[in-house]
Amino acid sequence: MVDNVESSSEEDRHSSRRLRLQTLVRLRWLAVGGQAVTVFIVAFWLKFPLPLVACAVLIAALAAVNFYLMIRYPPTHRLYPGAAFALLGFDLLQLCALLFITGGLANPFAALVCVPVIISFASQPIRFSTVLIFIAMVCITILAFSPFPLPWFDGVEINVHTVMQFGVWCSIASTMAFAAFYAYRVSMEASQLADALAATELVLQREKHLSQLDGLAAAAAHELGTPLATISVVAKEMERELKDDDRFREDVQLLRSQSERCRDILRRLATLSAEGEAHLRRLPLSSMMEEIVAPHREFAIKLELIEKSPRKGEPVTDRNAGIMYGLGNLIENAVDYARQKVTVTVEHDARKVRITVEDDGEGYSSDILTRIGEPYVTKRQREDRAGGLGLGLFIAKTLLERSGASLVFENRMPEAAGARVRVEWPRVLIDANSTK
């Protein structure tokens, strides 16, 4: 399950967050209102000369398309990337046409060209957003050569120097590129985090279901007990009545013996939860670590478990699926990247419980050390292994931190080669016998 989530591409995760049409419609009504108010103020209050008819046609076109979308589709409709690209492209071209006939880059509202591009990079796949920003760059270049003057007082003409035009072009282009990249990164990280947390919840749910199987078995045994008792009674009666009949005697005896066997099995299932709950729910720290380490001893890598503290007085922990999964994942990563040996060290005192996982591999690269624990970080210095430090490590880190642990990832250098992970809890959080 985790591998499937981790192998999905960034574009697939991004395109799954489709833009809701109602959000875009509301933003466009805001644009229609803003453009209409601006044109009204310039034409009728400031009384600047303005191509009023052309401006009204462009604003009406935007309003008409918006009105059609509002009527044609329900408010909950979500746009596919192609449709969202078409609408954002229309918004961009409409705005650029309005700016073109009102002074081009000399118009103080020219910076609004960035808005459709930023929306696209925040919500759409990168291939559509890249095309849109290219169109926007072409548009602002055309705006720099607009022959229409900026609406101004009668008899006064504003001539913007070529160098100033170029400066405005560079300002809008750089703002657009920076804001688009920033929006894309923030949106992508939010999407990755949401997907990773969803995978974490699925892992916890699976572990919880496994821990509930004994209860389900007991319930099934209780429900089946009555009909099996009835079958057993009937079988005994039939055996008594047909004991002298050679044709049915052996079959009836077999029927009775098998019904008794079923009752014995169900009796054991019914008592499994009650008998095993006490010692399965809580276990000493050493037993928990042996249970976590055991599945990873079957590989060619030597796995050594060192207990630095005596077992007398060791913490007794509640069986926590999150802790066991998280520690198991850290050990699995160490085994994947070790050359010959993995060492798991367990320490505890009156205040702390610390577990250290070390391998003798190549260790973490410097760029990965600063990003360990983020979702979909998958690089480590070993070319013959796939995956290893991606979503699985993020889930492990998240589950352990939820239990109150603090984690430190580092390399063992210079004393030895390899990587080291320290997991530490305040003892009061992990010892079931402590007063919390």
User: Strand order within the widest sheet?
Assistant: 2-4-5-7-6
What's the gyration radius in Å? 35 Å
User: Strand portion, in percent?
Assistant: 5-15%
Report, as a whole number of angstroms, the end-to-end distance: 36 Å
The major sheet is characterized as:
5 strands, mixed
Mean pLDDT: 82
Uncertain regions spanning at least 5 consecutive residues: 1-16, 381-389
H-E string: HHHHHHHHHHEHEEHEEHHEEH
Structural class: alpha+beta
Total helical elements: 15
Total strand count, please? 7
What does this structure look like?
The chain is 61% helix and 10% strand. With 436 residues, it is of the alpha+beta class. A hairpin with a 3-residue loop joins β4 and β5 (352-359). It is elongated, with a radius of gyration of 35 Å. A five-stranded mixed sheet has the order 2-4-5-7-6. α8 packs across α14 (391-402), α11 (285-293) packs across α12 and α12 (321-337) packs antiparallel against α14 (391-402). It has 15 helices and seven strands. The relative contact order is 0.08.
Short description:
The chain has helices at 2-7, 10-15, 21-45, 52-72, 81-100, 114-123, 126-143, 162-211, 213-241, 249-281, 285-293, 321-337, 366-369, 391-402, 427-430, and strands spanning 282-284, 302-307, 316-318, 341-348, 352-359, 406-411, 419-426.
